[in-house]
Design goal:
Metallo-beta-lactamase, Chain A; seven-stranded mixed beta sheet; alpha/beta; five-stranded mixed beta sheet; single chain; 263 residues
Length: 263
């Protein structure tokens, strides 16, 4: 998760367990407005076998995405838009679910948005990132005619924008939310946790880490200057924060924001 950053440094932020794993989560974003229910990313889903669940130490009995949505008063049929930041299995797993022997869109009335190059790469990944893609997560969307492709950026709804950013994957996007009086940014894997705010703290998963290092400081600086609400997709401790100046020029730290205060 921290690429070339020495463990002696990153472990201060994210202590590892005896098998060298750190605590992570898959935070998804629900955006609601007049007649609109939009979901940003869909988590891991239910496709991992027993070995996969053991590898990632998925806790048994943990509420699933559909359970979380139900607790917020949302059923799958009400979702109108699904914005997929990219197609790695931990970001789009609940985009589809099994129905008999087939895999079908989980949200039957939604338009799904994904960057064009990301989809092309997902169908023909290289040896390095082939394990990150599972065609069952996106092929059914294409077959159902529910997939919307775009190039550099798209605005699926007024005030809700997807922008291609970083070098994590060919078409990963961040998602910007403009609520009029306040703004938010869903960083996806450009800044997966609050610990990844420093420019050189880049994941080893990134295909083009130097591109991430070019884009990340611009986004982080803009979010800090605008006092945006920042959402970290993989951080179980600091899922949402405002950014404040750090201990040196160009460095920032996250001040956690409670969920109730963010609504």
């Amino acid at each position: 998760m921290f690429g070339v950053v020495p463990k002696v440094l990153w472990e201060r932020q994210k202590p590892a367990d005896p098998t060298n794993r750190i605590a992570m989560t898959t935070n998804c974003l629900l955006v609601r407005g007049a007649g609109v229910v939009a979901l940003v990313d869909t988590g891991i889903g239910e496709k991992l076998d027993d070995r996969g669940r053991q590898t990632f130490a998925l806790p048994p009995g943990e509420p699933r995405l559909l359970d979380r949505l139900a607790a917020a008063g949302v059923v799958a049929e009400q979702v109108t838009h699904v914005l997929l930041t990219h197609l790695h299995f931990d970001h789009c797993g609940w985009s589809t679910r099994q129905q008999g022997e087939a895999w079908v869109p989980t949200f039957p009335n939604a338009r799904y948005f994904v960057q064009r190059d990301e989809l092309a790469h997902a169908f023909e990944p290289n040896d390095r990132d082939r394990p990150s893609y599972d065609r069952r997560n996106f092929e059914p969307l294409l077959a159902a005619g529910q997939l919307e492709l775009f190039d550099e950026e798209v605005e699926p709804l007024p005030g809700l924008r997807m922008v291609r950013a970083g070098g994590h994957s060919p078409g990963m996007c961040v998602v910007c939310v403009d609520g009029g009086t306040d703004r938010a940014v869903f960083f996806a894997d450009l800044v997966p946790t609050a610990a990844h705010l420093p420019t050189p703290w880049v994941m080893g998963y990134d295909l083009w880490p130097l591109r991430t290092m070019e884009d990340k400081p611009r986004w982080v600086a803009e979010a800090a200057a605008g006092d945006w609400l920042c959402i970290f997709e993989h951080d179980p401790v600091v899922p949402m924060a405002r950014l404040v100046a750090g201990d040196r020029p160009g460095r920032f730290r996250a001040e956690p924001v409670a969920a109730a205060a963010a609504v």
